[in-house]
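Contributing new complexes? Match this layout with iron/sulfur cluster.
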Amino acid sequence: MPGITLYHPRIFITNYMDSIDARQTLAKQGYHLFGSGAVKPCLWLNRALRGGDQCYKHHFYGISSHRCVQMTPTLECNQLCLHCWRPIEDPVPEPKEWTEPDILLEGILREQQRLLSGYGGAKTTDMSRLAEAQSPRHVAISLMGEPTIYPYLKELIDLIAQKGMTSFLVSNGTHPDIIADLSPTQLYVSLNASDEETYRHVSQPSGDFWPKIMETLHLLKEHSCRSVVRMTLAKDLNMQRPEDFSRLLAAFEPDFIEVKAYMHLGRSRKRLARGAMPEHSEIVNFAKALGEGMGYEFAAEVPLSRVALLSSGRVSGSICR
Ligand code: SF4
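Output block (do not edit by hand):
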């Protein structure tokens, strides 16, 4: 009788404590929590601010890592992907109240400023990049959780555009009805298997989502924004037959396909062996075979990130205006 046990005070306290524990874990790992969401400086922002190289999104799409805000409007996810580096085993329960999108965006941008302030006094900081970083140009809605669970996602994306920033939305594709209505600068749909059985094994979904993901992929052909299918590949898990992915994806005609190696990082180390991490050359070979099967051009690669980009040739790579 879930309706009764939910109100049992011990259960309530346990849930409350779980929530606090999960949030504390995230805070310790460098997540700056705000309302129902969070922002976290990625390692590429750190490198860029020290005058170093920038992330593959810079090489593929022209995004400056030091002007990118990596955030999420929700900490919840409806999958438990084996390759996920985030602390998904400690689920954060749905908040009692979702943070309104304008308050959330202001809070996230403020937190980003706060985390940047730590670079001001360091001798290693590239001061011209730090000055640029004060005015972010891009929001990557991709940090943790499934963003389509957040009920004001459309409003949030529209607010980002109103502030003159571009947005990348990364979704696992489980809510096609919501995706259909969104207009980020670039829409990513993750696809980590070419058949339902492998998908269930790799992503451990909390519902019957494979048909929903197929529905989302069907939307890409007609969607108004640039579209990317992103796949994260691990050896002996989901990178056996590129031709199966080609056959599946050919009908959906995404603008780009990003083929990324699983990286043995964070919590994923408890689920997958180090040997599951493909070499960059293996990613390139897989991407080339996939692209040949679809007539997509091999457009770019970043060996350090073990990622390759395939392009349909319909839109230009750079999003910079
Ligand atoms: S969908 Fe994304 S956030 Fe959720 S478990 Fe999979 S990789 Fe992690």
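Reviewers usually confirm one structural detail per submission. For this one: The chain has a mean pLDDT of 90.
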